[in-house]
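Researcher: Next sequence.
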Amino acid sequence: MNIPDDLKYTREHEWVRDNGDGTVTVGITDFAQGELGDIVFVELEPEGSEFDQDEVFGTVEAVKTVSELYSPVSGEIIEINEALEDDPEIVNNEPYGGGWMVKIKLSDSSELDNLLSAENYAELTD
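Model: Next structure:
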């Protein structure tokens, strides 16, 4: 299982990349996509939507299940990955690359300190 060291993680299996400019990129982990199986649809709240940490910002639908996506940080969606609309299986093939979900402008950057390191996330998925 792939767990990049440069990302932060949630207990709900989202990953967070700090873009260094007050924004983060969010997606689901390799573990999550593997557990879900073949992803057939991704539904995301639109740009401009604001969320508190742990609020639902979308859903991922796989062949046998639907899973909610929880915002790892508080903030505003400034970009959604529109490629997922036509090609949701990118999440299965590139969970940390082309399969990203949203970019969020942070309301409180200190929330990043509460997320899991790669090492802590690896322990969670063992």
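Model: The helical segments are 30-36, 83-86, 90-93, 118-125. The CA atoms of residues 8 and 44 lie 21 Å apart.
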